């Protein structure tokens, strides 16, 4: 048997007719950039997650960059985040000229440890950027208390947590600004790249809308005026003012969600709860099968409705186990093998091995196994049997 860690083809096959018709209708419409599919998807996704405004963009990385820029975060500012995440989380902070400050994660939830985040706050700190890692929920209630105490903003990296809930609500997994990815393997995955920013703040929404399209037009003008107001300066009288796309007011980006992707994502959004239920069912199966073994299964707090983008097991002999699983035809891997504070790209920040012990230990002892919604019963049985047999022979 050969089982992929993530298989997006099966998801396409199941609803191929729906997705392909949606894509075809955009191809035939000639509305490739923006248009009704993009507008409708922004509305529907924001509604699903429980936010007022949805601003689509090119991918999840851009979503974080746009969110940071909309909050006015840039050169010299510090943003507290985790190193136990995908590179893009901290890359985005560095991309706007700010400094990522890494704190360790909670050893049980694998998400930002609020106490450590509070301890890392300095006069330069502008925001906290927790990640709802693997589809679990960061302790946003505690993080919110800290943010309020120090007047900081929360940017939630929700790239892995579409559909997760905290205390029964998807809304409670969000920050002041929340950033989603529709990378094909994600809980809600496009047939290409895609991303979304969610917020309840009309101002942030408008600035994001401006920044994602070259800082132009009506939203750009609004954003620049707002910037002048904040700085209590008079708006310059000698700049060209107009509301079409050729009036540029901010240095922004070109970051748009394709209409074809929006059309496919709208169809997939209708099935998202089925996808998540199946992920959760697979997780429950593994939890049960492995309960009397030395594997540490993911923890799901009573208040959390985990969406299981990734199902990772923890074991001191993870490396040998991964090798043997691969040998048995089961794809598996560590998400992520090199914690961000030790990545070459962040070398100049001066972190060293030993600075974030929980993160570093997780990088050495955890590995993800297939959990995707279309995983078949015989496949998950084969995987759990193989895990048990490997354990017996360690
Ligand atoms: C935690 C996290 N943040 C950010 C991203 C970036 O998303 P994208 O690949 O869509 O740019 C991803 C996914 O790839 C992710 O897993």
Description of the structure:
- The protein is an alpha/beta fold and 394 residues long.
- The chain has two domains: 261 residues, Type I PLP-dependent aspartate aminotransferase-like (Major domain) (Aspartate Aminotransferase, domain 2, 3-Layer(aba) Sandwich); 121 residues, Aspartate Aminotransferase, domain 1, CATH 3.90.1150.
- The protein has 14 helices and eleven strands.
- The strands form three sheets. It has a seven-stranded mixed sheet, with helices on both faces. Strands 6-9 form a two-stranded antiparallel ribbon. The protein has a two-stranded antiparallel sheet with strand order 10-11.
- α5 links the parallel β2 and β3.
- It starts with 7 loop residues before the first helix and ends with a helix.
- The structure holds pyridoxal-5'-phosphate.
- Pyridoxal-5'-phosphate (PLP) binds next to α4 and α5.
């Amino acid at each position: 048997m050969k089982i992929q860690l993530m298989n997006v083809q099966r998801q396409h096959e199941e609803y191929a007719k729906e997705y392909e018709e949606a894509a075809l209708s955009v191809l035939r419409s000639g509305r490739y950039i923006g248009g009704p599919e993009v507008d409708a998807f922004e509305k529907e996704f924001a509604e699903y997650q429980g936010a007022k405004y949805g601003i689509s963009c090119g991918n999840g990385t851009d979503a974080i960059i746009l969110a940071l820029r909309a909050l006015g975060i840039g050169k010299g500012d510090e943003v507290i985040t985790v190193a136990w995440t995908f590179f893009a989380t901290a890359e985005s902070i560095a991309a706007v000229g700010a400094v990522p400050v890494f704190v360790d994660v909670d050893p049980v939830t694998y998400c930002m440890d609020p106490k450590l985040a509070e301890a890392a706050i300095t006069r330069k700190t502008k925001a906290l950027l927790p990640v709802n890692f693997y589809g679990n929920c960061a302790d946003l209630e505690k993080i919110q208390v800290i943010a309020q105490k120090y007047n900081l903003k929360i940017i939630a990296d929700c790239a892995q947590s579409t559909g997760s809930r905290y205390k029964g609500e998807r809304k409670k997994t969000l920050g002041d600004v929340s950033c989603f990815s529709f990378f094909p393997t994600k809980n809600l995955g496009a047939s290409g790249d895609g991303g979304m920013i969610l917020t309840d703040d009309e101002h942030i929404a408008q600035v994001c809308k401006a920044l994602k399209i070259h800082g132009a037009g009506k939203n750009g003008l609004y954003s620049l005026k707002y910037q002048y107001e904040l700085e209590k300066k008079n708006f310059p009288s000698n700049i060209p003012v107009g509301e079409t796309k050729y009036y540029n007011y901010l240095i922004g980006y070109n970051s748009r969600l394709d209409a074809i992707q929006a059309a496919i994502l709208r169809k997939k959004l209708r099935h998202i709860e089925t996808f998540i239920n199946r992920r959760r069912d697979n997780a429950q199966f593994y939890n049960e099968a492995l309960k009397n073994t030395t594997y540490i299964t993911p923890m799901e707090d009573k208040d959390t409705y985990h969406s299981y983008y990734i199902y990772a097991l923890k074991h001191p002999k993870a490396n040998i186990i991964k090798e043997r699983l691969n040998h048995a035809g089961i794809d598996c891997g560590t998400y992520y093998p090199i914690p961000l504070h030790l990545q070459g790209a962040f070398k100049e920040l001066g972190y060293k091995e030993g600075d974030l012990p929980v993160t570093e230990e997780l990088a050495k002892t955890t590995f993800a196994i297939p959990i995707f919604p279309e995983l078949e019963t015989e496949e998950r049985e084969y995987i759990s049997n193989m895990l048990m047999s490997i354990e017996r022979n360690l």
